[in-house]
């Protein structure tokens, strides 16, 4: 009988010993990414780069990279894409693309927060999509895709010793509305405390630290795999550009390429996008967006978190508001007036708090080949952004003096639903 | 006290490895008693309450109240029906009892379609408890359960190792064990197996399942959806998701069975190497077994019996096919009211009907169809891929894809 019990317990003891050995083994063989790896990761928009810290934080720490926060438009690589332009004309920075289809302000907030030390006092570009500002903000499904436990625990740890402010309460409340958070009992318990303005206990912070260390190790391992090579596409695009920078030549070229690439439809939409995504459903899409509204959304407050984070770390940002392809929006019935109102509302949120570097392209919606397809900046759009970007980079502002953050108003439901501005 | 309470580690069953630390300590008295061939009924009841509080208290206390309400509701129905059944046996009262027993589940599934929030009736594991409750009503009707001791019924319903996701035990099996604990010889064997299951479960769920589900799946989805590898990425997603689902759920089931063993209960196993099945029928005898056996016994067999007795269909084959479609449609709806769960159910029903047709064809043409290692290998390969494809539907991947392509970004 005793032998039987020993046989039963033996493997358990062994398993525990092995596990302890694994936990306390040094993991020094994982080093920071090399310069080459970093450069490869910059235009990749890989999910493990976005959710992790290893790559993006190393990039933010070096002065060679310029973070571009946005979403799907970043993946529209053509000759005038920021990465291509920067490489061709040796601009001294490499755009580090932080965003992917489905990332919205809340993900951007966590990304920014997770690299705040590295980013202090630097410049970034932030592309705002009007399409984020729907009734319920970011969807549960999309949030869960880009939810980063690592960055969330890092945020929790940063609250140590601090009084919980309105912005932190708002973050906790927002997080608790997503199923990927509520399925984690301990995390939701801690967020529940922060929502009620209570500090985390020593024990809870200890747990957070342990969890964070574990996730950071995982990030070192998993952020390495499957980083997307976009090099061949970028190289091809670089070759389309003239050797020497000449705005006039580039403008003509952008027009010409746009014309060549949009031949199978009357909307000025790139051929492959049109045949793959629009043509199969074209009739259904007619007048399908008449009731779309981007004026009432929790996203306005999620975006405020981004602004707050930028202000706290003295980051100078160029905000870009892309238009919606007019020929397309007329077809789907998406209201131009509503889009104009959106531009006004978001601009008010920016200007009234002192964020004055805004490239608002809303009214360029009718320009030919400005957009690559329906809602994504294209050839002439990227080219205009390139010029605005050079101006922005040249006269770096000292934003600290001018910025006046008003979290109380912009985190309120009143502002989220405000239609008079 | 309140400080201690706020530090209390509330966890859903087996959520974190830490759950097992607490479990290991608190189980000791029960294990020592069982080694002597005894069952500490009172202490095990305390364990149940403690672990239920851990999972349904604190941040989940709303669910705790819902669980209590649910149990009271089911007790009322079962107690009334068993009393009625001792004197009469009208079909209408049986169907009414079944309906009332299903009602909480129906409300929990249907209400969110209108309110967009989780109904107050919701608690983790409600659908698994519904299987247990409905089973008891059906066996009362059959006369298999003549008396219902409420204490036994409560213990059966809220047996904590299996409360959140099964395996779905049978009432008569469970209560027999409750009153006749395993001998000390038998228990040593259970203890060994139980510990072994928990260790394997940790490997499955916390290591393999975690790496596949939390680390690899998002990267592969990203490849498929955003980086232009739609076909290869989707194929990779299909395999990865299938293995993730197996390791996650089989790991969880091993926990539930292992912990049951430590408590001296032989809860039935749920998975038996499902991916080596040579056809889809065999697959369902190896995958989520307690669920498919439940559906076989309480839906399919009963429906077949009725259909054949009342001669609804002339052909037995038609009746059987109708039975399969009913079974899998209900299973799909049970998973949730979304199009992909229902398509998943219909897909499996079609596969089973096709398999049956193939088996009939094979019987007729025995001499012409070869049967060897190669054909066996081929059928395992085909079955595996049919299953993986069905799990890809189940995962909601196509839903995400459609939304990403045709609603977002246009």
UniProtKB/TrEMBL annotation, chain A:
Keyword set, alphabetical order: Cell membrane, Membrane
Pathway this chain belongs to: Cell wall biogenesis; lipoteichoic acid biosynthesis
Gene Ontology CC: plasma membrane
Annotated InterPro entries: DltD, LTA_DltD
Origin: domain of life: Bacteria
Database matches in PANTHER family: PROTEIN DLTD
Similarity comment: Belongs to the DltD family.
Protein name: Protein DltD
Protein species of origin: Vagococcus elongatus
From TrEMBL, chain B:
Gene Ontology cellular-component terms listed: plasma membrane
Superkingdom: Bacteria
Keywords: Acyltransferase, Cell membrane, Membrane, Transferase, Transmembrane, Transmembrane helix
Entry's EC annotation: 2.3.1.-
Pathway as given in its UniProt record: Cell wall biogenesis; lipoteichoic acid biosynthesis
InterPro entries linked to this entry: Ac/AlaTfrase_AlgI/DltB (IPR024194), DltB (IPR024024), MB_O-acyltransferase (IPR051085), MBOAT_fam (IPR004299)
Chain coiled-coil ranges: none
Keyword Lipid biosynthesis listed: no
Annotated membrane topology: Multi-pass membrane protein
Annotated localization: Cell membrane
Segments traversing the membrane: 18-35, 40-58, 64-82, 94-114, 195-220, 241-263, 317-335, 341-359, 380-398
Enzyme class: transferase
Any one GO MF annotation of this record: acyltransferase activity
Phosphoprotein is among the record's keywords: no
Chief site of localization: membrane
GO BP, sorted A to Z: lipoteichoic acid biosynthetic process
Record-linked PANTHER family: ACYLTRANSFERASE, TEICHOIC ACID D-ALANYLTRANSFERASE
Role description: O-acyltransferase that catalyzes D-alanylation of both teichoic acid and lipoteichoic acid (LTA). D-alanylation of LTA plays an important role in modulating the properties of the cell wall in Gram-positive bacteria, influencing the net charge of the cell wall. Catalyzes D-alanylation from DltC carrier protein.
Family: Belongs to the membrane-bound acyltransferase family.
Protein name: Teichoic acid D-alanyltransferase
Naturally occurring in which organism (per UniProt): Vagococcus elongatus
